[in-house]
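#random but structural
TW: two for the price of one
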Amino acid sequence: MEYSFPHYLLSKQSVDDLALNKDVLSALRANLPGQPIRIIEVGAGIGTMLRRLLRWEVIRQAEYVLVDEMAENIESASGWIPRWGAEAGMSVEGSGESIRLYDATREIRIWLERADVFDFIRKNQEPADLLIAHAFLDLLPMPESLPKLLSLTKGLAWLTINFDGVTTFEPTVAAALDEQIERLYHRSMDTRSTGGDSRSGRHLFGHLRSIGADIVAAGASDWVVHAVNGKYTDDVAYFLHFILRFFEESLAGHPELEAGTFAGWLQERRAQIERGELVYIAHQMDFLVKPHPSLRGGALRECPV
């Protein structure tokens, strides 16, 4: 199988659609300022959140800045966003790093920024009305990253799909082996050199409180992936294969895990996908936050990482 990260981001759209906490989303709708608004999304991938917000009619008039460090994500976004915009009946202007989508009632001006998030924070001159960080905060050093990130918004922060320490695969391959692999995988998140936290969801409550942020709403946003009548919908089988690829890359050669045993476990899990048997559950948390006034509007842009 060919593994492509942009394809993975495409494949998990429907998984995220079901997972995003609808109470937190309702709070976002209720607290958004009048449009047009300025939105900054960090770790934005290929633009799936923008598409979702338009499909769900959360935004209609906006400036939308997508920030991502991966060149392949920005390149994919520059082609994919105009395609789905046209498929949704919107007119498309521009290309590359500047795109405009519009119709009789909607207008979204989009800028694609390939940048490290902290480099972007240092250079950004115009704070957003809404900051979005989707499936991203659990990859960063915490809590020291939070004040810097929240300095990007003068209004709200929607922090979604923050992993929270529970991974489940069914059916069981071997109970003790399953538990060991899941435990070692979580530990690999906690020991990444770039930062990360396998329980970032629950820890965000304390981290946000410590910097004076107001938690407007919070709730679970679990991935619950299973087949229906023996088949996975949309591109979900690819998503599941990619999740196993994460496990393989993180644990290959681990001194506590016998290589042949791990290879057999991966082989059986992949066979379960092909048979439409694998159930995958990951516990995560969503937050809607109002930063403390001292953090708003770029006050910490010059802080070193």
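TW: number two ↓
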Amino acid sequence: MKLLYRPSLISLIIDLLILVLSVVIVFEWFPLTTQNPYEKYDGAGLLYFGLWAVFSYLFGRFRPLHTQKYLKVSFKLVYTTLLVFLVSWAISFRFYGGTYSIYVIFTYTTVIFGVYMAFYMLYFALLYAVEFEEDPHRAVEVRENAQVRQATPLDEESYRELCEAIVQHSGTKTMLALNEKFDLRSGNTLVNFSSGFLDIKAKQNYKFSTIIQLERLNNLRGINTLFATVNAKLPDNGLFVCCFESKSTRKKRILSKYPPGFNYMFYVVDFIFKRFMPKVFLTRRLYYDITKGKNRILSKPEVMGRLYCCGYEVVNEKKIGKLTYVTARRIKQPESKTKKSYGPLIKLRRMGKDREIFEVFKMRTMHPYSEYLQAYIYERNSLQEGGKFNKDIRVTTLGRFMRKYWLDELPMIFNLLMGDMKIVGVRPLSAHYFSLYSEELQNLRVKFKPGLLPPFYADMPKTMDEIQASEMKYLRQCEKHGCFVTDIKYFVLILTNIFIKKARSA
């Protein structure tokens, strides 16, 4: 590590603000024996600040925060606070005869550490939640003559051994179901029993028209890598079959397995350890070190979304025993970025003024990879009253509560401050949802900025046609009377519906 570097101005400002905030917290909220702590500890405070600046610089804490990693900055903070505390206490004891209370020094150091850790958690949660990570296992592929290559069918003995292996691994019902849907005798069908992707990667391209992965996805750490590898091996329109235990099935299994009362306690612990920990950047590495990625909890929307993200479309799904089997068709190349970090904050690409795409900040209310399932949900369930997707399996239980009271939209205040949105205006829509609108309304929508409070809450429309009519009326008034006058009028109507008529988000 180079000791000489130019400190980041933003890092210095943040550091100063946290130091001052910690002083206020300790002197105002904690019980102290002295009546004038600011006067008594002014000299000691300057010494402490000086030591803090020196050790912070030496440990590289003043480098730009976005260029560093969470664990590294956390360890730098630990080293800094520990050394500053020890040196401050030693100086106080040696030169001031213990005039300055060790309790005050310890409390102040602890408060600084706590405030900084809270700031780091918030900062990196936001950073990691919205950043994409490149998949290191896959490069851009050029597909030529991606048609299946005919193979020699299995002889009777090989076919029988394959069926026996399927029965031993997944059961008789699975073997019969696969035999009914796919030609297992064909040399163009590959059945993979392992949990890794290397066995598939070693196979010849386009040799297999169907690849069946029988090890459940819950036990696979690199799910996207597996999906991308299979995508590369399949010919155009080739089929991929995978299986998993869904979150809802796992819940039912646990609740029925253990005695009442204890079953819910076990379920909560299981959910936190095997669903929450793998998704949070603070605990992800610890989780994988302990479990090696085995027996994770996966939701149905996440698996479906990963498939669409990796270039497939789902053509069939079937429940066999406690596992859900999904058949997907390879239709395109995987997304260029297939590994994502999922935290409580997300940003979504939305259509803005002049058809410019901008990113909207929101609290996460859906399962991971749900953004790839808009067309899938719409084709199967269409829209419900209020314009939302009908039976939207992508939304979590907590997410439904947050949506009802608009808690998920609070981070959009950042978009308001950045000038991407205004207080009153039409909803910022995804490209797919935007395409469902009439061409006339699309052209009118992009003339104005979207807003935090849509005209929906002024008119409370129920159908898609009524929603479009409501937005058209609002936008026409903006053209005729100007946005300022129109927005004030709608702002009053919206607040009246929300606080008096108890309107809630769909």
